[in-house]
Amino acid sequence: CVLPYMSISREQFDNCHKRGIKVIPCLTTFHPGAKYCPIKGIETQEDADRAVIARVNALKDHPATLAWYLTDEAPVSELPQLIARNKLIKEIDPDHPTYSVYCQIDQVRNYRLTCDVLGTDIYPIAAKPVGLASVFARTTQKGAGGGPIWQVPQAFAWKWFGRTGENSRMPTKAESRSMAWQCVANGANGVIFYCFHHMIDDQPRADFNRDWEDYCAIAAEISPFIPVFLADPAQNATGYEDGKTSGRAWIKDGETHLLVVNETREPVKTGLKLTDKYASIIPSLDTVEQVLDGDRLSFELPGLGVAMFKLVK
After folding, report:
1. What gap in Å lies between CA 104 and CA 108, rounded to an integer?
2. Each residue of 127-138: b (16+ CB within 10 Å) or e?
3. What's the pTM?
4. How many CB atoms lie within 10 A of CB 163?
5. 38-57 pLDDT tens trace
6. pLDDT in tens, 173-230
């Protein structure tokens, strides 16, 4: 999918649909006084609401429309307006979810009524631990009260925003892959990297081609597991090491699938207690040395490693 900040035309929606791309139309600037408001003459909230109604009605029937992006990192002080905007859109179009992203990780629960799908943006590379992707996902899921969350990992270099020094670089493929899998392992139902336009505009084309290839490869690795992620959740294993490992489990066609991530850059040798006894195990993703002993699974994950285990009774 794509989430364009500008208001793209219906013809562009058609082009996306022809190529199998879903669109999340952006309504974040449909407010009085907004710097990048796409509609002239919006001076009051009533003007803004009329513009939103017109926009939603024009696109709600388009097959490329996936969701409505309502707000981006809005402060808690705007909660009444955000809640009212969400209610308005749900009345016009009950068939598409509303989506908003926030950076106020310690205030996520306050935003539960502002949208159907919550997300938080995680931009730790390279000054902060890459494991913040897990922290943000867990905190967001808890704040969402078990509702869906679409997380936003970093896909840009801080130097494009004025930062200097070694901490201003672009994430590596391994870091980007880890952030994506950490999000999934800690509750995310979707992953939307930020952001394409900086990747293509703020670096040489050869660097963009390399990075784009990397993100396509990450998506291609995750996509085959979507049927598992959409299956019923299973009771998770226990024994994860705080700040080091985390995971999530599902039941698909009677089989238990367990996803485990290493949130650190160092190898982790650890063990988990499973919810049942299993006769065998089928690992995928990273090469993992594992030992299964009934309801006890011991294994070693490389730095930023990811393992998916299919447990067979």
Report:
1. 6
2. eeebbbbbbbbb
3. 0.94
4. 12
5. 667 778 888 889 989 999 99
6. 999 999 999 999 999 999 999 999 999 999 999 999 999 999 999 999 999 999 999 9
Cα separation, 243 vs 270, in Å, equals 13
Residue 126: cis peptide before it, omega within 30 degrees of 0: yes
DSSP assignments along 138-170, one per residue: HHHHHHTTT--BEEEEB-S-GGGGT--SGGGSP
Q: Which amino acid is at 208?
A: F
CA 235 from centroid of its chain's CA atoms: 22
Structure tokens at 186: 């800690």
Upstream peptide bond of 195 is cis (omega within 30 degrees of 0):
yes
Q: Could you give the CA distance from residue 40 to residue 51 in angstroms, rounded to a whole number? A: 10
How do beta strands 268-278 and 190-191 pair? Answer: unpaired
49: helix, strand or coil: helix
Residue with tokens 């994430």: 171
Instruction: Let me know: does 4 contact 21? Beta carbons within 8 Å.
Output: no
Question: Which tens digits make up the pLDDT trace of 139-178?
Answer: 999 999 989 999 999 999 999 999 999 899 999 999 999 9
Amino acid at 254: G
Closest CA to 304 of 208, 210, 218, 204: 218
